[in-house]
Amino acid sequence: MSEYKEALIAAMTQFNADPLARIVGYGLRDGKGGNGTLKMFPNEKTVEVTVAENLMMGIGMGLAMVGLRPLVFLERMDFIGNCFDALVNHVDKAKQISRGEWNPCVIVRVVVGNKTKPLFTGPTHTQDMSEAFRKILRMPVYRVTTPGEVEAAYHVAMHDQREGIGSSMIVESKDLL
Asked: Shortest CA distance to 23 belongs to which of 65, 63, 55, 66?
């Protein structure tokens, strides 16, 4: 197992230790999904949905608005456009547009790559739009490529979520697993 994957598992284990933590995504039940980095989440802390990124982001925002601490897992950044409205206009700006009444703090976990692994998934499944989202979003966008960056980004994102500071996007590389 790579050190990078071990760092992701450690971060997810720490996140899961929070009783208010929830994970939203597809293919997650019974320890599946996330290439084994999400296996520690019990089904009762998992919100399993169909492949519907806008729905996933909306559920994440709703969970945050009732006091839970969600992580929305988007297995491929290529399909983040499907949740663009919920992410860019709601999760990212809810505090601003509600004049501070609402501040849903969501961790958005996004995966890019898969160019070096067997069964290359092609150009529509490997795009990295991190730089574009750094320009679009107010929330921090962390592109993590080393175990140390994984640890640091999740540490800050979990702190910011727990303290009500705001949401974060963490972009990981499937090629490093």
From this structure: 63
The conformation of residue 174, written as its DSSP 8-state character, comes to G
Whether pTM > 0.90 for this model: the answer is: yes
Sign of the CA dihedral running 161, 61, 95, 93: positive
DSSP assignment, residue 10? H
Residue 124 confidence class, pLDDT cut points 50, 70, 90: confident
Backbone region of residue 35 per phi and psi (left: phi > 0; alpha: psi in -120 to 50; beta: other values): left
If you write DSSP's letter for every residue of 28-94 in order, what string do you get?
-GGG-SGGGTTTT--GGGEEE--S-HHHHHHHHHHHHHTT-EEEEEES-GGGGGGGHIIIIIIITTH
What order do you get walking across the sheet with 46-48 strand by strand? 46-48, 21-25, 69-74, 107-112, 168-173, 141-143
Token pair listed for 99: 């004049």
Angle at 63 between CA 11 and CA 138, to 5 degrees: 70
Helix or strand holding residue 150 (H, E): helix 147-162
For residues 52 and 75, is the Cβ–Cβ distance under 8 A?
no
